[in-house]
Amino acid sequence: MSRIQINAGHIIATQNGQHRHLRNGTIVTENDAIVHVGPSFDGSADQIIDVPDAVVTPGFINTHAHLAGSPLDKSFIEDVGPRQFYLSGLFEYLPVRNGAQDSEADVACLAYSMAELLRTGTTTIMEIGHRPLETVEEANKVGMRLYMGPGYRSGRWLTTDGKRATWEWDEDAGDRGLEAAVKFIEQYDGTSNGRVKGFLSPMQIDTCTEALLRRSTDIARQMNLPIALHVSQSVTEFNEMTARHGMSPVEWLQSIDFLGDNVILGHAIILAGGSWANYHGDDIRILADTGSNIAHCVWVFARRGIAMESFARYTAAGINMTLGTDTAPQSMIESLRWAAVCSKIVDRRTDVATAADVFNAATLNGAKALGRDDLGRIEVGAKADLLIWEGDSIFMSPLRDPVKNIVYSAQAEDLNTVIIDGVVRMQDRQIPGVDVRELARNLQAAGERMWPAMQQHDWNDRTVDQLSPLSFPSWE
Questions:
Q1: Per-residue pLDDT for 430 more than 90?
Q2: Sign of the alpha-carbon dihedral angle for 76, 269, 277, 214
Q3: Buried b / exposed e across 318-329, counting CB within 10 Å, b at 16+?
Q4: Beta strands 166-169 and 155-158: pairing type?
Q5: Tell me, what's the pLDDT at 330?
């Protein structure tokens, strides 16, 4: 057995289901689990890590990601968002990027994403994607704890004129996708010492039939799986669902018995009762009453001027709020900060969406959404998924409240060491076997292939520079 003893100046440990600040404490891990937490330890260890100025926290649980594409959002998707689609890029920009991106780029994105996640504190990732086998392979290379949800749907959205969204349907494709997802989960769930798990992921509420969602719900409950769904992520989607069913998307999900404590709703940001929808109702109460979980991905909306109304309001209602990254940058450090700050701006209050609130969302709440009482915490019996932060760095000094410093001041360079399953996966910001420069070169090459190809996938035959103008004109 391998036993590691970590002596740290600050530990965010867990007692009675809540985080506590342990000063000058000790953590002992044995194989993949934590076997001791406290002020001291009298036993022996195979390795001792003395970090008197450091902060040790649980690893972050990232509940919403698209690893095979998100890195290529950079340098394209920012500063654009058609007013016709209420600032969302889903209906014009996402299809263009997806159509122009080749399979080699998918793999380049996956490899790059795993390194980016480790460098910014994610130890458990929920990936909603279309390359499950390659995702498992890349996760195993770096030791990431992976929840894989192969995406499937009954149809797709598109626009042919830039004025309205339409939907094309292929219900058989949705059924085949669900069957493939179940087969994948049956084969891979519990592999890699239990680090690889599966969940069901019908893609979007507006691209799935009622029959597909009902069948997915039944299978998830039979197999005791989490189930994720994009919902209430744009005004266009909200209006489409109210036109189809005469009720909000969340109300409709409740009517078909989809909601529950194993459900993780991606975004749920355009709700009945909120200003963006301008539609009477109380979706927040429904979400709270059904025990549903929310994966809040603040940056994908904030970069377009859209903010949840608000993180603090959802939390106060009793909704289990978790955090995801969704787009680039895939940094949970940024997710913590933007979730706190945007809620304060919307509420015009400084004492809401506190550092503790968003830190809980990234740890304990994420574990609750997955039905795991062994993740997101530092206590005996939990998995040894740990982050070691440099407490005496330029960004973390002076240090009194470690959680406030991490949420409001820390940078990726402050995260020194990542341990997953009791194994050091990153130390001194270096990931064994990973050449970050090579990952960046491969991603750059993927972009260079993708950008010229976008024109043929755009409804109006626009070039990448027309779709996403450069910040400054080229030198003449």
A1: yes
A2: positive
A3: ebbbbbbbbbbb
A4: antiparallel
A5: 98
